[in-house]
Structures are given as C-alpha cells and as structure tokens.
Design a protein that fits this description.
The structure is a single chain. With about 100 residues, the protein is mostly helical. It has a single domain, classed as Up-down Bundle (Chorismate Mutase Domain, subunit A). It is about 80% helix and about 0% strand. Helix 1 packs across helix 3 and helix 2 runs antiparallel to helix 3. The longest helix has about 40 residues. The radius of gyration is 19 Å and the shape is elongated. It starts with a helix and ends with a helix. The structure holds prephenic acid. The site of prephenic acid has 10 residues, from helix 1, helix 2 and helix 3.
Length: about 100
C-alpha cells in the first residue's frame, strides 16, 4: 500500500521542481535572446563566433560559484559548454544569413 505521507511529500517536492524547471526555461530563453543580439553584433563587425578567452574566464567564475553553492563544478562546466556550443552554432548561422 502506498504511504500517503510519502506521496504527499513527493507531490510537494515535484511542485518545487516544476517551479524551478519553469524558471530555468525562462532564464535560458532570456540568455538566448541576449546571445542572439551578440551574434548579430559579431556578424555586423566581422568578429569570430567563439571567444575562447571569455569562455575560460566564465568557466572559472561558474566553477567557483558552483563550489560555493555545493553544486558539482564539473557539472556546471559541462552545462556551460553545452549551452555555449549551441550559442556558437547560432552565431555561425546568423553570420551565414541563415537566422
Ligand atoms: O560573449 C560572447 O562573446 C558570446 O558570444 C557569448 C558566449 C556565451 O554564450 O557565453 C558564447 C560564445 C563565446 O565563445 C563566448 C561566450
């Protein structure tokens, strides 16, 4: 038989997760709006899509923030690299007139 207290706690935790996931989606959407503008600026001024030095600085910053927040810094770096790869792809599409 299902423990009703455990079920109630699970539902409550899932409600918190739902809110956090919604916030993450909205924050990601805002981040991509900003990077779309960066992509247009870079294309207009013939600047390279990627900026490895900026990425290095941001990874160091995010790893430190993750450590403070008790989040695995390796995961924070993986997340950043995953997002940046998509951003660079968007920048290249903008420069090629495909976006
Ligand atoms: O800051 C930039 O120049 C960007 O293009 C944004 C961004 C990022 O998404 O954080 C993406 C690609 C660059 O390599 C570095 C950073």
């Amino acid at each position: 038989m299902v423990d009703t207290e455990a079920t109630a706690e699970l539902l409550s935790l899932r409600s918190t997760i739902d809110n956090i996931d919604a916030a993450l989606i909205h924050m990601l959407a805002e981040r991509f709006k900003a990077t779309q503008q960066v992509g247009r600026l870079k294309a207009e001024h013939d600047l390279p899509a990627a900026d490895p030095e900026r990425e290095k600085r941001q990874i160091a910053r995010l790893r430190a923030l993750a450590e403070d927040a008790h989040l695995d810094p390796a995961f924070a770096e993986k997340w950043f690299n995953f997002v940046v790869a998509e951003v660079i792809h968007h920048h290249e599409q903008i420069a090629a007139g495909e976006r």
